[in-house]
Fold Glucokinase.
Amino acid sequence: MASKNKLSLAIDLGGTSAKMALIDTEGAIHHRWSLPTDIRDQGRYIVSNLIQSIHEQLTILDLDLLDIKGIGMGTPGIVLADGSVKGAYNLNWATAFPVKESFNLSLPLPFYLTNDANAAALGEQWLGAGAGHQSLVMVTLGTGIGGGIVSGGRLIEGSWGSAGEIGHLTIDTSRTYRCTCGKYGCLESVASATGLVNLLDHYAQESIVSSELLKDYRSGAMIDAKQIINAAKSGDLLALQIFDEFSHYLALACSHIANILNPELILIGGGVSMAGEFLIHAIKEKYLNYVYPPIKEQTQIALANLGNDAGLIGAAALVIRNN
């Protein structure tokens, strides 16, 4: 274990589970654990469960609060100025939940909180694919789409904590897909894991191509994003049609990001990014047709490389950069 007061306690909170770790000033993970996220009763137990788990782990490791520099946490939703979180629907925190206040009452340590995609962006900028770069945008592709912006080495959170809501760019004005936010045409509704399935539902209705994916769909099989991507990689005609439109929306969004922010890098992460270079190549090919020509050689698109640890590393970075 690292020397006294050199450890940051990092939390990456998700709708299914919370990942936690003790991380030193060099970014090395010394101990990690997780616990299920209990979203019952408007998520009222989530923070108390986290706090209880932290106390238990510190006892097991024979550490006390003096050994911890602070706590950094990434969370779904919008982080308000007072450290409350709202709009985290997968946590049942539709209205503001007093996260920071709850931690401060039970754990007298410096506490830093940001959106989970922001934490992932910080992690990648510190030790991941963005290391050595002062300007990047992280796009996380999962069930939904998140975004984090780093400029001049600093996280950009906006006036009210809502900067980087890339998943809710209105990118499709012709479809009728409703986003979880209640709006229609969001990037998230056509270019996330959910978006891939939405596109399958659309194209499969009238498709006449020869396709094993189509046969499986019409037989009633449950098909997820990974299966669609794997089918596209294998040359399935329906899957390729879906993947072409999917990557078109992502490329268009990346061009808007590049035109407005002109970062050094746009990093693609999250579960869907496991499609790897197959996905990056498709995005880049279309992106070059959409982006403002002088920016073509400036803002590059690449895969994030910290995987599931990006949020934890970024949460630790919140502590380290503020101490």
Observations:
- The CA atoms of residues 17 and 142 lie 15 Å apart.
